[in-house]
Structure formats: C-alpha cells, structure tokens
Amino acid sequence: MRSSVTGRRAAALIAGLTLPLALGLSALPVLAAPSPTPVPVAPDRQPGTSADGVALLRIVVPDDAALDRLNSLGVDLAEYKKPVNDGIEVHAVLSPLEAQELRAQGFDVRGAISDRADAAANRSERDSAIRSADAADAAETDTLTPLRAEWFTSLDDQRFLAVEVKSSATDAETVLTATWDSGRGTEPGSGGTTTMSRFTDAGQYMYHRFNAPLSVTATPAKVTVTSSRGGTVTVPVTKWLGERRKPPGSHYVADFVDHYMDPTEVTTRITALAKEFPRLTQIVDLPYKTNGYRRAAQAQFGAVAASTFYVTSKKYGSEGGNDLSVALVKPETPSAPLAVAVSGQAVVVTLATDAAGAISSTARQVADALNADAAASALLTASTYRGDPGGGLVAAAAATRLTDGLNAPASVSRQPFQMKALRIGKARDGSKTGVFLYCQEHAREWVTPLVCVEAAERLLRNYSHDPRTKKLVDGLDIFVLPSANPDGAHYSFYDFNMQRKNMTNHCAATAGDPAARNNWGVDLNRNFSVGSLFDGYSGASSTCTSATFAGPAELSEPESRDEVWLTNRYPNIKFAMNTHSYGGYFMWPPGAYKLPGRELLPRADFGTENYFWDASGHILSAVQAWRGTAIWPGRTGPVPDVLYSAAGNSADEHWFNRGIIGWDFEVGADLYDPATKQFQAVGFQPSFAEGHEEAMEFAGGQIAILEVARAFSKDKDRPESRLQVTGRTPASATFTFSIDEPANLYYTLDGSRPTLHSTKLTSSGAREGTQRITVNATTEVRWFSVDIAGNVERGYRPDGGGGGYRKERVEVGKKP
C-alpha cells in the first residue's frame, strides 16, 4: 500500500522543490552530499522506459527528521522503511522530473525497484495465464499422462500409494482427483479418493502428485485419475522396490559403528583398516590439504554498532593468536591523547579524554589507531562493526584475551588436514571398474561418514567367507572417502552443530566480526565447475555468509579439488555415490538449471536415464532390506525433478566432465507415525539409535551400488529392440521402440545407414515414457541399440561399412 496524495501531487511537489530558500527550504536537515552521478541501474530499470517514466525508486535519508521533511513535501512514499548503513532507506513513486528535483536538493535518490514496464510484464504474464486457462476451458477435455502409480511398504509393513500424473492443461485451475480400489476384483473407489497436489518448480508446471505417499490399508490394483477439465485415465498400480534379494549368508557380519565419529576418528579408522588388510587396501593421500580446523583469534568491544569495534589476530589462534590481549584504559587526566602501547603479547589502548576528563575516543578512532601503530598492527587488525562509521564513544575495558573460539579437544589437530581415501580391491592397478563412495560434503550431516565406514568394514571383514563380497572386492576398484569436509565437520561436532560449509573465511572485514563466525565457509557442494553460480545457474550464493556460498571461484577449495584430482588420477572410476542427509532421496544428474525459464543442464540421454531408474530398484531395495525403509518414488529421480537446483554440485562435475555415473543419497527418510498418520522428519543429527539404523540401511545401499558396478563390468549381453506402431491415420503413422534393457537407440528415416551420429531416441518428457515418432509417408526405419556397457545390438558395427542394423517398413494409409 502507498500513501495517498491529491491528483495534483506532481505539480505540488515540483512547486515545493523550486520555492526560494527564504520560504524555508534552507531548513532542510543536512543530507549526504549528492553523488556526482545517480547510482547506475540496469537499462531496463531506468525511469522513462514507459509512457511517463514513473517508477518506484529508493531514497536514502540520514535520519527521521529528513524523512519527515520528505513526507511534508508530498512525496508519494510507499509504506516501507529500512535502516541501512548510511541512514534510512525508503521507497517513493516518482517521475523522472521529480527524481531530478529531489537530487538537486541533496536527496540521495537511487535506483528503481520497479517501473511501469514491470507492471506491463506482470499484466502480460497474467493475460497469458488467463488465455491458457480460457483455452483449457474451451477444450473438450485435457489429456492425462500417467507417469507413475506404485505401492510399497515401509517400516512395519505399512502400505503406501504414490501416483504422478501430468495434465495437458497446465493452469492452476486444473484439479486432478485420484481414486483407487482395494485390490484385484474390488470396486473402483473402494480404497479411497483424494485430490492431488500441483507440483511446480521455478514457476513451471511439472505434474500432479501426492505431497507425501498415502497410507492405504489394502494393496490397490488400479487407480483412476480424473481432471476438472474432463480428462481421465486408469492405470495399474505396480510394486515399487522390494525385489527378491538373496539374504546374506549366516556368517555375514555387519554393524561396525556404535557412535557418531568426528573426521579425526574416521580417518584413524580407515587407516587402521588399511594396516589390518594390506593385501586388499591402501591409503590414498589426497594432494590438497585443507585450511585446517583453525581460525584467527578475535575479541569484540562495545554493545551497540556505532561504539563497537573488534580485533583479529594476524596469526591463527592456535599459533599464537590466542595469547594476545587488548585493554582499553581511561586515563585519569583531562585532554589526554589517544595512544597505543605494546608489551609482548599485550596491547594497551589509552583512550583520549576531553577537557572534562570524559572519554572522547570513538570506535573508528581506536580502530584506526591500532592499525596505524607498527607494533600493534604486526599482531592484529582492527575493524568497526560491519562497516559502521564507528562514530560512537567507546568504554574502558579490562585486558581481554583474544580467542579463536574453537572447542575441539587436543586430539583434533589445528593444522591443515590430510584428507585420505581408502582404496579397496584385490587388483588395484586400474584394470577394474572403479567406484567412488564419498560422504559428508556438508559438515552437519553426522550420519553420512558412518555409512561410508560401515560399507568399508563390511567389504573387508566379509571378504574371506562371503562369496558375494569376495566377487565385489576382486572385481572392482573401490575408493571410500568418509569425510569430504573434515574441517567443517570438526566445527560442527565441537562448536556449532548446524555448520554446513567448510571453515575457510572468504569474507571481507565488514562481514568478519566474531558474531558472524558460524556463517563463514564455502558450501563444497556448490564449489564445482559444472553448472555453477559463475555460469549463471541457480541454487548457490555469492554472499560469503550464505549457507550456499559458492566460494570466490569454481574449485577454489582444496576439498573440492581433491575430489576432482581423485577422479582424474584414476580414470577407471565409472561410478560414484555422494551421500548426504536428510530426507530420504535417491537422485542423479543433471542437478542445476538457470532462471528464468528453468534452463536445465543437458538431461542424461534416454539410455542412461533408464539405467539410472533401472539401477535404483536394485539399490533402494537393498536400503529397504535392513528395516523396511522405502525411498518414495517422488523422491527418486534427477535432482531438479525431485528437490531443487543445486548449482556447482559434485555429481554434475563428475558426470559432465568425466562421464562418471553418479548418484546422490539423502539418508534419513521421514518416519511414519501410525498414530498421527503423519510422516516426521529426522533431521541432520537424530539420536544415535536412529542414526545407527540409517547408517546400516544406506551402507546396504552402497554395497548394492557396487553390485550394479560389477554387473556393468561383466555385461556382455547385447540389447534387443523392436519397433511398435502405436497409431495410424489416413495421412500418418506413429511408432516407438521398446528395448529389453537400458540402452540408447539410433535411427534414420531417410534410408541411410544408422550410425552413432544418427538421431537418438529420447523420452517424451521428464518422468514420461519413450518418445513417439510420427511420419507422414510410408517410411523404412533403420536402427540399432547400444547399452550402457557398450554392447551393440546384433553385433552391428556403426563405425564400419556393413549391415546388421535393424529395419522395418512403417506404412501410412494402412488400416489401424
């Protein structure tokens, strides 16, 4: 809402601003000197782009008196007021002439927030939405495309139903309702009915779904979805997860973690494993040491911003900074000068006094004096609070010891951390398919390193007596990095449990005060080089105190460079799993998009996407085998489809740069409470009893990933495909292909020989089925398929000159 004025507001304002000084404008409060040129704004934000150039602009005044004066002039002020470093920011609706006159009188008029062009764009968007809705209303019916309809059990054999359906009518007025039976042969609707939720991402309609799987008492056989636009579809309900898994042998051992472990303990644990199993393991020292669990020591003086300053040691606290002290002394004499003295590690500031003997030193003056003194500035730097001018008077203070504020025990080194990976395999010479298991990129995710440790223990301690384990260790080259963020994880354990990032402080002095210490660091899973913030992708921040700070540059952090080094150094690595918490997700690339428009990184091709889905059944069934936890279908898929955009994440780095098929676990699935019939989140650090269960079940998932990788390495089976005509009209024919395993298919329609450069079969859309192809004349289709392991259908050589490809004639005009 804006303040109301008369219809002659503009004229009155201009007249008021041009009155002679004798009539009172000289009484305006002293304002900040106007900038020689207005604050620059983007061209599409400049006043004047619409008919009369009226825009909502920022004005910064020094105090409330100036704001009152601005209001008395009849300025059309919005009901908005915010303190800023140099005064008070308010917003006003101004024409270009009004803005010019205010600047001429010393008012600090800044860039536009919005103008009439924005309103026009909003109206245009609204009109488009209305037209879309009207078109949907005018259509006979919408078309419903079923994406998934599945039932599953989770914990205590509780049954759940999950359904996803996409409507051709994308407007928000389209309502979908799901109805299901109580099993084969029962009446439709006997199981229940509910309205589905409309799922949008980045402003774009994706599909309809349940916000959470629905608890059902009986296993449905069919579900019918109807639309308020008239569309309807009935589909069978299939089982999600729960494939038959041969139970481990009676001598198979598990459960090797009994408490949360910090990175020092974890590293000691894998080092001990390497010593115990030297024929099967080795430690890989990663080349880039971290910054270390260490910080400069600091002390802050003052209670309000204007009177506050803080000091920061030049050395890390553990290397002498914690030994420094600063005292602020009030002399007993009037008119005393401000002075700084240093004796060893003690800095004493004698404050200035006025003629009456009162302290007259401001925070800015004390900070400047400390920085100007050669002896003091060799030990520390001083800054006012978050860029404040520091005009307030300081108070005397007894000698205050600087501290780095770190509370970890002495067993945690303060030096740069040597990250180590445990390499497991009988043949560690690069000849076997490599798998990279890495955990705890985010410090506060305490369960995740337990997952990696548990998986490593199971592999080594079952090797001698469990045939399946022996096949994995003999047939693969496995790299386990239990904590990819050791510094941040130590900080999370001992100082601030919600720490997400590492400990490297890239903030300038204005954001470097002790009160911001829990916000420093880089989000390592936003620091990689593909789809990054620096490439314009969404889901990371350039603000150094943001939880998703991407760092000053791609791969700026040693931790992320270590991951890249490992996957480059060992090019046999073909699979990876990045384990996070929490929420119970199973995801894969692409993981980021640009805004506006939700411009995704390239999706995985048709064959690889199907491989991701196909493998997920095996992997998630292994997770479920421990205690029955089911990862929901709606939390399985490419990262942006089920979660959000994550610019610069590591899975995209490994997939797009090195072709590594990588997944992301989010351990800690929601727990269902039968009493309340609600799912409850478990958080980053659940009780260890729950954390232990999560570690056990997802370690099973990591073992299953190894099984997928070994099957890949042994795969010699050639795919088989066939062409299926799905529809005909007198003037066209539509067909698609089916393949007996995840594979890419290449085809031609012009009679030419198909190669790897021919058109590649795609999916119909996100989470939809196989592409359908329409031809308008009788066509000979030639094609071949090749699976993820490189096996080509019928042994065809697409780079050669012979035949062997598939071919079939699709006729137009033939009766359906």
TrEMBL record:
Its cofactor is Zn(2+). The keyword Protease applies. It holds the Pfam family CHB_HEX_C_1. Residues 384-709 form the Peptidase M14 domain. Residues 117-139, 795-816 are annotated as: Disordered. Residues 1-32 form the signal peptide. Keywords: Hydrolase, Metalloprotease, Protease, Signal, Zinc. Gene3D superfamilies: Zn peptidases. The keyword Cell membrane does not apply. Residues 117-129, 805-816 have a biased composition (Basic and acidic residues). It comes from the Bacteria. Belongs to the peptidase M14 family. This is M14 family metallopeptidase.
